């Protein structure tokens, strides 16, 4: 069974509770299932693979720091994204600003072990290759991989021609999809609002096309919450729904 996780909302850091719940139910990572991930969901997947018993505590400890680093990804509704985009355009912040990536890598090296990821690893990490214009399974040094999968516009520029797959397709292919959707509260007033709505419509069309290929889809709505335990509980509920569907 291939469980696929999306990735460019901070809420995906709470997906570790889904993996913990599967373990408690007797499912073993690498034997009973694998995780296909992109963006921020790669962090809990890697931590669970390497430090299974401590992964939930590590994620809860990094939560506050992550909220400040991934500012746009920490929004709880779509209007928050538009507001951030507007601010960035006003101050003319350049995408090629390497300081953003340096801060990102400081965070990664503080919280994640540097592992070797290969094609046999039970956690499969995907990014979007801008040069080849396709999704790609990444293998090699974890820090090099994470540098590519966590970057997304407008906060972080592409690294070595890669960006987060979540901004293009939303989620990697698999059997089971678990994804987070934010409240659509945009009331268009400015040109940027209409631009974002146009992008969102295209993105949702692509996402729905991809989700239609999954056997089971679980949607998580965070309900405007940035509380780690509350969002983790929603991923726990997703695990329970998955187990119920698998056993029936």
What's the tally of helices?
8
Query: What percent of the residues sit in helical stretches (DSSP H or I)?
Result: 40-55%
Number of strands: 9
End-to-end separation: 15 Å
Describe the structure.
- This protein has 248 residues and is of the alpha/beta class.
- It contains 8 helices and 9 strands.
- Helices cover 44% and strands 15% of the residues.
- The strands form 2 sheets. Strands 1, 2, 4, 5, 7, 8 and 9 form a 7-stranded mixed sheet that branches.
- The longest helix is centred in the last third of the chain and has 21 residues, at 191-211.
- The protein starts with a strand and ends with a helix.
- Residues 91-96 have low confidence and may be disordered.
Protein traits:
single chain, 248 residues, two-stranded antiparallel ribbon, 9 strands, 44% helix, 15% strand
In a few lines, what is going on in this structure?
The chain is of the alpha/beta class and about 250 residues long. Helices cover about 45% and strands about 15% of the residues.
List strands and helices in order, with pairings.
Elements: E1 2-5, H1 16-24, E2 34-37, H2 42-50, H3 55-69, H4 78-90, H5 98-111, E3 116-117, E4 123-129, E5 134-138, E6 140-141, H6 142-149, E7 162-164, E8 176-180, H7 191-211, E9 216-220, H8 228-247
């Amino acid at each position: 069974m291939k469980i696929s996780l999306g990735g460019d909302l901070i809420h995906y850091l709470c997906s570790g509770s889904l993996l913990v719940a599967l373990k408690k139910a007797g499912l073993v990572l690498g034997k009973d299932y694998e995780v296909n991930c992109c963006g921020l969901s790669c962090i809990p997947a890697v931590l669970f693979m390497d430090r299974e018993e401590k992964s939930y505590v590590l994620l809860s400890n990094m939560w506050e720091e992550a909220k400040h680093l991934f500012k746009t990804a920490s929004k709880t509704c779509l209007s928050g994204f538009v507001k951030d985009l507007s601010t960035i355009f006003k101050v003319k912040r350049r995408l090629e600003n390497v300081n953003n990536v340096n801060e990102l890598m400081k965070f990664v090296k503080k919280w994640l072990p540097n592992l070797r990821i290969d094609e046999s690893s039970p956690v499969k990490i995907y990014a979007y290759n801008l040069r080849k214009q396709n999704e790609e399974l990444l293998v090699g040094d974890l820090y090099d991989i994470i540098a590519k999968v966590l970057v997304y516009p407008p906060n972080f520029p592409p690294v070595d021609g890669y960006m987060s797959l979540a901004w293009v397709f939303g989620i990697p292919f698999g059997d089971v999809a678990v994804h987070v959707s934010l409240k659509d509260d945009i009331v268009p007033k400015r040109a940027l609002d209409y631009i974002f709505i146009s992008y969102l419509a295209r993105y949702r069309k692509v996402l729905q096309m991809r989700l239609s290929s999954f056997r089971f889809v679980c949607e998580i709505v965070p309900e405007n919450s940035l509380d780690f335990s509350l969002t983790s509980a929603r991923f726990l509920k997703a695990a329970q729904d998955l187990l119920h569907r698998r056993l029936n």
